[in-house]
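Anyone? Bumping this.
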Amino acid sequence: MADTDVKELTTDDAPVKARGLEGVIALESKLSSIDGQKGELIYRGYDINDLAEGACYEEVVYLLANGELPTQEELDDLRQQLRNERVLPTPIMDILRNVPDDAHPMAVLQTTVSALGQYDAEANDMNEAANRRKAVRILAQIPTLIASFDRLRKGKEPISPLDHGSMAYNFLYMLNGEEPGEAAERIFDVCLVLHADHGLNASTFTGRVIGSTLSDMYSAIPGSIGALKGPLHGGANREVMRMLLEIDEQGADPAEYVKQKLAEGERVMGFGHRVYKTMDPRAAILRDMVKELSEKEGEMKWYEYSMAILETMREDKGIDPNVDFFSASTYYQLGLDPDLFTPIFALSRTAGWTAHLLEQWADNRLIRPRAEYVGPKDRTFVPLSER
Amino acid sequence: MADTDVKELTTDDAPVKARGLEGVIALESKLSSIDGQKGELIYRGYDINDLAEGACYEEVVYLLANGELPTQEELDDLRQQLRNERVLPTPIMDILRNVPDDAHPMAVLQTTVSALGQYDAEANDMNEAANRRKAVRILAQIPTLIASFDRLRKGKEPISPLDHGSMAYNFLYMLNGEEPGEAAERIFDVCLVLHADHGLNASTFTGRVIGSTLSDMYSAIPGSIGALKGPLHGGANREVMRMLLEIDEQGADPAEYVKQKLAEGERVMGFGHRVYKTMDPRAAILRDMVKELSEKEGEMKWYEYSMAILETMREDKGIDPNVDFFSASTYYQLGLDPDLFTPIFALSRTAGWTAHLLEQWADNRLIRPRAEYVGPKDRTFVPLSER
């Protein structure tokens, strides 16, 4: 989309109606750019392929928040700040201990991130420096929240976070109780890089709408988490895995399985995207990673099911997979529970959510569209006794 | 705004850019309509003046959710459902007991509404009937959450909800420990009616964006609460009271106080509205109520300060007060703490939030605008060791 094609609405113009806000530009951003025709995603001017290959997640966190890739010193400093904030306040751990074992992990994440604000003395301080510190705290504590919840529901004690290692390394350690191998850490780290930001998706947009009222970061991020939970957004990766597991359990032919779903008018999760008209570049990176991981572990079936589904969807519907499609089998091959896939997406996207909030507040404007009223008009009120 | 003036965007059109989404219609709604030129607000076709005079809050809850005013039998049934759901699950009361006394009431409300979902077996059931039951539960429990939090932070035991009485009556009882007089109940009930819905404001819009991913009600409402907390939205009524109290403490002349604020380039809260170009009809209703309440109690100063500020703002800036301006002194005269004003706004608006979610899900479409990327392009990645 060339900038010259964009029509800017002035107060003199007639209102524009766009259901779902498709085709509407709500704000300007310097964070990430998606070229749906070319299948291109950039963060702060850097191509996602370069970042996935050459940068770790913490570098991307720094890049999104500051606009530049960090020097070694800046990166070390950020890493140390993140490590310093990994431990949860005791009352938050108490909430996690009391949550029912069958609670939805995204619901628990929403509740506890919201609760974290009550133990942060800077929660309502809207100074930029305070907001940057809060962004680091939230990002550092989300992995501990997810891992602690997962262990508690399995009847295990939470594992205290390490005071060393990357976010990817520490998270896998807190989840499994053993330090991860280099390959697992690297793959997981790349997944975090790939999911860190993606334009004005529904959860990021939610956060910016909340932030635009000058509400605080601990109030906005739970809104983003709530949006990401939805199956039309982050919840899709869990649904993709559910499908792959169902195919495996039934011993079904993946292509036939998908054809039948389509014939029944059902949605096949992990395909299509409002913005990409070609293959999502993140899906391509993940596809290659799943293949490599599968070959290494000598377990090709998830990759094979995925490729068979991909071919069928391309042939029958002409649509390509999105990031959720291959992240499902990647996480599964890493030994992660399917219902943690969306919380892990949240973990990664917190980098984008918090950076978008900083950007929103640097030049704030309330985000408030209108609804078109299509209901009855001029009704005469009838008192209760006469109804 | 006549419908004929609206331009509907098609996929062939160039993207439209509208910062803050001003002038953009994001969806169709049958819930409420605002005529900013005439200063008119209607719910489901009924004028807000008629509803404030003739209907109680529970009738409005029914109207917003169902599109029709209830018969006596339908109203009795809804009232009974609401009464049945007033008691909080024990683990929620435990969370409230552990919250720091100085926590922000809106933050606590967000955390606990999110947590309620973990104790509702229907939390993730997206069936319409289940969603309607959840709307009733959330609406019934929010007053108990607010009143219990307020008592606990004051070192008092929470008061169990009554199994009779209106929402207004029961809430004031749980807060103060004594049954309210008829006048207080009536005034408070009118306040609930006035704040129940208001088009696609930022908190309602937030809820619909979250809901549009097919996330659930317990995930969406906390997002709305987060948005309402902001001083550019629901947080304004608390700021208005802060100003009135400051004027009183300083013994300042209200008109001079406001002139000085304006001269210093500060914002005077409770004035102006993106939609109303004349006086907000809710402000007019509340103004008359504050006057009556003040005369009855023989304490005119808050009304007098307010009117002096109103005149000054009209003369100097040509802008009218909005609903927050007079709700502040109304709630204060009813003996409510200023930092509960926004939670009470949330209590009332939950009627609108939940009805908007039901409407969203009845004909869902993902709400996802775009951002215009204005950052750097085509940057060459430099590895960490070379930075």
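Late reply, but here is one note on the structure posted above: Chain B touches chain A through 119 residues (CB under 8 Å).
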